[in-house]
């Protein structure tokens, strides 16, 4: 156990010693805020158009349903996740690119411990990044939709917002660990990014566009839609809520993460650095 925590300390130092970490976190924040603001503005505009209410009518109790400030943030994870995917990917593929993985494995010969240490560093960092960037995006959405042009069509229920932000943090943490597993298996940044993009966006959307029921059902059980189901997103490219409970979405996301980590551990254990 002491070896594991020593390895965690080393991985923590490596993560924060490079500028790419800060750039990726900054990129995630910018993407989250911009995406949430655009999605929130679109949602409020659609609600006003469908109800036929004006800004003044909304303030006086019009028919348009208000937007929960954190709802667009949940949907914005579809875009912001890739900045954090890049960070998780670099946590392992950068060492293969520079040859530093040899030093790491000499210091910690048990390869499962190396992967566990990286996961124990990456996951909480991503979770905190998700919560904080989500909070900033929620505040931006609330401020935007409070303007007269949107009729103040926004609410900020504390319990729901906190639940949404925590779910975003869990989603980012699991996607990051999944990326780490893929990175350990692929060993290259290009290969890892390609596989993760196909898992998160490419393959699910291609299956969804076929329109076949089997393909659609398979698409909805892949990491992106499973995560959106867990977070309760309704603006998710499917035209409505994901048709299964949030906990089932979490179970699917955990399963994909476990498969990726198992694949990464197998390659890391069997192949030379």
Summarize the structure in words:
With 273 residues, this protein is an all-alpha fold. It has one domain. 79% of the residues lie in helices and 1% in strands. The chain has eleven helices and two strands, in the order H-H-H-E-H-H-H-E-H-H-H-H-H. It has a two-stranded parallel ribbon. Helix 4 runs parallel beside helix 7, helix 7 packs across helix 8 and helix 7 packs antiparallel against helix 10.
Task: Set out the fold topology.
Layout: H1 2-16, H2 19-51, H3 55-59, E1 67-68, H4 71-98, H5 100-107, H6 111-145, E2 154-155, H7 158-186, H8 189-210, H9 213-220, H10 223-231, H11 246-270
Parallel strand pairs: 1-2
Strand order of the largest sheet: 1-2
Mean pLDDT over the residues: 88
Rg, please? 20 Å
What's the number of domains? 1
For the secondary structure, the number of strands is 2
Query: Which percent range describes the beta-strand content?
Result: under 5%
SS class: mainly alpha
- What is the approximate shape? globular
Termini separation (Å)? 24 Å
Q: Roughly what percent helix?
A: over 70%
Main sheet summary: 2 strands, parallel
SSE pattern? HHHEHHHEHHHHH
